[in-house]
Automatic annotation (TrEMBL):
GO terms for molecular function: DNA binding; DNA-binding transcription factor activity; kinase activity. Residues 1-22 are annotated as: Disordered. It comes from Elstera cyanobacteriorum. The keyword Transferase applies. This is Sugar kinase.
């Protein structure tokens, strides 16, 4: 992950260990992460889980309340001992901006502290250009921030960007010369057109992180994730954290070899990506631009969509079986930039295709739907500044207590 802080001056640290710029101590971030993970916890439970003394935990939690990062829930009665009051993340405690740069469209959204999308802007194009993305962000950031009350606008943690790495390599398929991206420093480009720190992550990895943080990922400590965009991508989650691998290329599911009914070998990216649906629509005389202009309305795509779902499901099943022969994943989570009804059909078809494979020696994982849909990449981008300044990686909350 790359990061550039808008304020280049290194923040100081006060005697309590808190950064003078408003950054949090490790214990404060750990408490916020535990509260986020469990949805709300009383002070006594937080003290027990962190290993801190009740007094230290109480003082720290009170400070987080004073900073409006935590809010009190309703008092819980009917249990043994004194009634307890759970503390939860304040949805308006922190906000973040998330940008998805896709090959056919861009999204810019405003996310609150609990992962709810407050506002979203979209723009479709024939292909992305650095100048066009900078213009979209320069116009979109003020439009989104102005939807917040004036006293909340100072609580925006940063702008997180989800973008395919080495975007220029795919210009031939998109039908454009995108070599300008090769020499573009996106972090600095966007830092010049808006005032917030900029963070950048691979788009599929960001989508996987969004599912882990705000979706069903917490229910599965190990899963393989597929996101069907213009090109299919994905991620690997092990022990509750995104695994990036030695070179950062873990989860490059588009490169997985699969075999067609004609016994020809190829890669998953060529048979389970939306560009293949785009090509099929063109061949049928249909306008494929609706896939990017109106991503929630595919009701009349008919037999072209039916054939694409069948082909994608057959090959996704092969990819899932291959992945589970290496790592015993408990789940395969499927999501994509398409309507919920299409996601439901694709998941059902993939489950059926798994049933037709020889799975001897493999424990088939649960195949489940993702939750964020087309906004998964932008949500994952927005989570980057939240984790940078306020939260800890999920695996940290599962280690030994911080004392």
């Amino acid at each position: 992950m790359m990061v550039l802080n808008a304020n280049s001056q290194e923040p100081g640290v006060d005697p309590a260990g808190r950064k003078s710029s408003g950054g949090l101590t490790l214990n404060e971030r750990l408490m916020l992460s535990l509260v986020r993970r469990h949805g709300g916890l009383p002070k006594a439970e937080i003290a027990r889980m962190t290993g801190l003394s009740p007094q230290t935990a109480s003082v720290t939690m009170r400070r987080l309340e004073d900073d409006q990062l935590l809010v009190r829930g309703e008092r819980q009665r009917g249990r043994v001992g004194q009634p307890s009051t759970p503390l939860a993340l304040n949805p308006d405690g922190v906000f973040a901006l998330g940008l998805k740069v896709g090959r056919r469209s861009a999204e810019l959204l405003l996310l609150n502290f609990v992962g709810t999308v407050r506002q979203v802007l979209r723009e479709a194009y024939a292909w992305p250009s650095p100048e066009g993305i900078a213009r979209f962000v320069a116009q979109g950031v003020p439009a989104l921030t102005e939807t917040l009350a004036p006293d909340l606008r100072g609580r925006i943690a940063g702008l997180g960007v989800a973008i395919p790495f080495e975007l220029w390599l795919w210009g031939d398929i998109v039908g454009a010369d995108m070599q300008a991206w090769r020499d573009t420093d996106l972090v600095h480009l966007l830092a010049e057109v808006q005032p917030y720190p900029v963070f950048v992550e691979n788009d599929a990895t960001a989508a996987c992180g969004a599912e882990l943080t705000f979706g069903q990922g917490a229910d599965y400590p190990d899963f393989i994730y597929f996101f069907v965009g213009y090109f299919i991508g994905g991620g690997v989650v092990l022990n509750g954290t995104v695994y990036r691998g030695r070179t950062g290329n873990a989860g490059a599911v588009g490169s997985m070899p699969v075999r067609s009914p004609t016994q020809k070998w190829g890669q998953l990216i060529n048979v389970a990506s939306l560009f293949t649906l785009e090509q099929a629509l063109k061949a049928a005389g249909e306008d494929p631009s609706r896939l990017w202009r109106t991503p929630d309305d595919w009701d009349d795509l008919g037999s072209v969509l039916d054939a694409w779902i069948a082909m994608a499901a057959d090959n996704l099943a092969q990819a899932i079986a291959a992945a589970c022969s290496v790592i015993d994943f408990s789940a395969a989570i499927l999501d994509g930039a398409f309507p919920v009804a299409v996601r439901e059909r694709l998941v059902a078809a993939t489950r059926a295709a798994m049933g037709r494979l020889d799975l001897q020696g493999i424990v088939a994982p649960q195949i489940v739907e993702g939750t964020a849909g087309s906004m998964a990449r932008a949500i994952g981008g927005a989570s980057l500044p939240l984790f940078d300044s306020y939260l800890l990686d999920p695996k940290v909350t599962l280690k030994e207590p911080v004392r």
